[in-house]
């Protein structure tokens, strides 16, 4: 009897305890306190978001469609859905009643499912055939806007995506952006058909802009810039006609905001306009400039100078071989101006063969560098660069320790570049304005390729959708710049709040050191190989010129000797290149050894000394006792 | 000082202790006797609050072992059977630890431990891990641990178990020396120990008390109490037997020894026969080489009081 | 709680009085460094983060923590010292808590000794140290939860090996609960809400949530609850043993 009582009291104790714990956890799930330990506060609403939400002037309903009751949901998706719900609650809390949240589980064959489809939420087929909905719909007044699928891979950008969607309806009307370019930055649906329909040639950067602003195309020979535009983006201006230059000039004089991308050598240009560039006997014109307009804004830029940086060199594939190419520069945080709202929160950019901008000596305007290069930068000629192979080009780059800038914002009360008034060919229009009424800001960046999809985003297919994920902050740079110039600094604060890669800087440094150390040797060997190849070519040429078919024995012997030499030298070079990797592998091995051995040996030592001390004390007392 | 009333303890379906009650006044040394498995240790474990009684209770120094177990434990020094202790600790570490848990801190804990070094003669092994000690030293460490807070009540479960005769003697001396100001309960199955130390013996068999008296009183219960053993020349044996049959108050007569020269004479209950035998043999001129009066044998009493119980429990 | 300090100290120092503790620590460090570099490929990842380490930790703990906790009660019962312990003026709560916290502190020491990994990633690049800190906090909480289970299983048997195996099995189930592969398997049998509840009871879900860099009150309360349940069961076993 007693045992039974004992048992029941214990068992009921356990049951009561477990019930208490479960209810505690249930209550805790309703009220939660979170402490965001990440450096970038990835899990907290940023000040920018709060400020944006605070400015909402209309009621917004956010509907989260998530098929939670599906059985075979992947765990990451479930976890992410919870996270989405949480962040929505934070939006709601910050909105002072403007935002209301609905969470809907669209079960198959229900009205909810139909609504999800109507709103444009993408149903994703799970392996067993169930359709999963996981998307957001924003109802702002009579307008609606959807995020068709919330990809867990974009978790870091969730807050921004939501803020952007929220703002899209509110802000789209306000900032009008024009894009003028010699490249097909804004493409029309092309006649070429892809598997999913016509291929849209529009760059991701424009789609990104469109999500934030009202974007329109301005023809590259426009004689007038619509005054409705708040911001004009000029990318890769090549030999613009005078009237167009004048139009841009006057746009700026009248307070229009301008972002200019110029490039001494745009491989994108070469790639996209391959046919147009292939004029026999003519060097392709793939550089761009705004000449006297830039001068009028106190910016110095030389379209013949290509800039590179040994310590920012990026791995590229040069003819099947991976090399560190200093003209592709990975710009890290330390070189992106922390003071500017445009680059202040950016982490990493990739510059693909750009030039430099600098402030005209003695100018009174304010020159705010946005992207800087390191002391290991140097220059090359843009004209020769196109014909030199990347390995040789890299080698020719000699760092000179000078300060160089890739992009800058210039602020001042600018004067017109057309001091004599409108050039010929401009008829009528507004009155010539020789000087701006107030300070204006122009942003200049000396590269255009960085905005091209290849250099800026990764694309992957998710069902019928192509998901685009930024590879770096290249696009953010432009969007931030427009945002900044267009007057909304709130979104800037949210953007690029992602967990961008944190590579081993030490390894990169070692790589650079190793390259320096082995460079001379490698160069000599390469030189040898080139010599051999040239001689070989000469001999082959002789053969084709002279007796076409017959080679005399001496020639044959020579050729085979050259081939032999070439093989030998190439092998030597391979070894030298292997040495480049060696230092890094050695570092890896050393680190593993230190981690494996250091503390375990210390712990063992401590253990042994403790036991030695204990046993010694005991022997001492024994001896003392014997006395 | 200790008052036990109706203590019952079950293990599974087996009742190990079947309602034990007794009192121990202050300053008494009580010996707990009983065969293995009689419930001695179980009773002691209940008194020291290691296990809870199934029913009944006890008080120690006026505190209830169930309701006020911490206060009870504070008053008791306990040496469990076979003196377990933390083997990886050295003697001084272990004693200081116990002293600290007993409410002494830092220097005073060490001082208390040092005091035990003298009392229990632990100097030789002071800094030695306990697991490396001999059985005798471990027992002493157990003692030291029980005595360190100078408790008014000492409960010792087989304190001399496994010790050599010298060590046993030392331990007994130690216990006796503490007798004046402590109430002590010790359990043993060694009868001589009860004789040597205890003022009172309680015999437990099969979970119940079967005898509770001073060792002397217990002995009186023995068949051997006042029995007379005499040694005569073998030729006188028949003569002696004839003589004994003439004495009143004599019960049984046994002839012992291979040479049939030793006779044990048991008196009838309450009779004293030694004097009569000695006088009569002088009269009859019987050559008695040796005559001895027995005090009574505890082991015999022990066997007789516990036997019936053991038998009963076997069924 | 006046006796907590000496009890805790005895228990904690007890680890270092036996050579086993040093062996434990060395094996744990070798295993964790090995997992991080060889299985997790820290160096090849070119990412300054301790994710490879924290990914393997729940599985390392699965063996390591029950090994640390197995002796706590089983050894007391085997050697009979439990009779010394519970006849000292010590409350059950003091005894249970001091043992648990001593074991936890020992685990904290072991965890702290993985600091060369932290130094390594800081040497190699610029990791988010906030996230790493959160990872350690999560690891410590998870270790506590594992340990309370081990305390409980340790009180069930005199035999350390049995209590170790029991501890591993129970912890393994608790790890499995939150493991994607397992929940997917369950999905074919049980309703979705039940799977949600069950998955939420697993260690990994909560550990991963914290180690992303987010200290969420729910995850912390979860681990504290798990610890409480383990210790309560531990206390109940001991009380039951006292009574029956």
Tags for this model:
heterotrimer, A: 627 residues, alpha+beta, Glutaredoxin, 3 domains, 7-stranded mixed β-sheet, 5-stranded mixed β-sheet, disordered C terminus, C: mainly alpha, 14 helices, globular
Walk me through what this model shows.
Chain A is built from 17 helices and 24 strands. Chain A is α+β, with helices and mostly antiparallel strands. Chain A has three domains: 47-155, 3-Layer(aba) Sandwich (Glutaredoxin); 173-188 and 199-422 and 431-503, Rossmann fold (3-Layer(aba) Sandwich); 507-542 and 550-626. A seven-stranded mixed sheet of chain A has the order 10-7-11-12-22-21-19, with helices on both faces. In chain A, strands 2, 3, 4, 5 and 6 form a five-stranded mixed sheet that branches. The longest helix of chain A is centred in the last third of the chain and has 74 residues, at 553-626. Residues 623-627 of chain A have low confidence and may be disordered. Chain B is α/β, with parallel strands linked by helices and 315 residues long. Helix content of chain B is 37%, strand content 27%. Chain B has helices at 40-47, 69-75, 91-101, 106-119, 135-147, 165-177, 191-197, 215-220, 237-245, 274-283, 298-314; strands at 2-11, 14-24, 29-33, 55-60, 63-64, 76-79, 153-157, 183-188, 200-205, 208-213, 228-232, 250-256, 262-267, 288-293. In chain B, the strands form three sheets. A six-stranded mixed sheet of chain B has the order 6-7-8-3-9-10, with helices on both faces. In chain B, strands 2-1-4-5 form a four-stranded antiparallel sheet, covered by helices on one side. A four-stranded antiparallel sheet of chain B has the order 12-13-11-14, with helices on one face. In chain B, strand 7, helix 6 and strand 8 (183-188) form a beta-alpha-beta unit. The longest helix of chain B has 17 residues, at 298-314. Chain B starts with a strand and ends with a helix. Chain C has 244 residues and is mainly α. Chain C has one domain. Chain C has helices spanning 4-17, 19-39, 42-45, 51-69, 71-79, 81-85, 92-112, 115-124, 129-156, 160-177, 180-187, 192-200, 203-211, 217-243, and one strand at residues 214-216. In chain C, helix 13 packs antiparallel against helix 14. The longest helix of chain C is centred in the middle third of the chain and has 28 residues, at 129-156. In chain C, 54% of the residues are buried. The chains are: A alpha+beta (627), B alpha/beta (315), C mainly alpha (244). Chains A and C meet through helix 1, strand 1, helix 3, helix 16 and helix 17 of A and helix 2, helix 8, helix 9, helix 11 and helix 12 of C. Strand 1 (34-36) of chain A pairs antiparallel with strand 1 (214-216) of chain C, so a sheet runs across the interface.
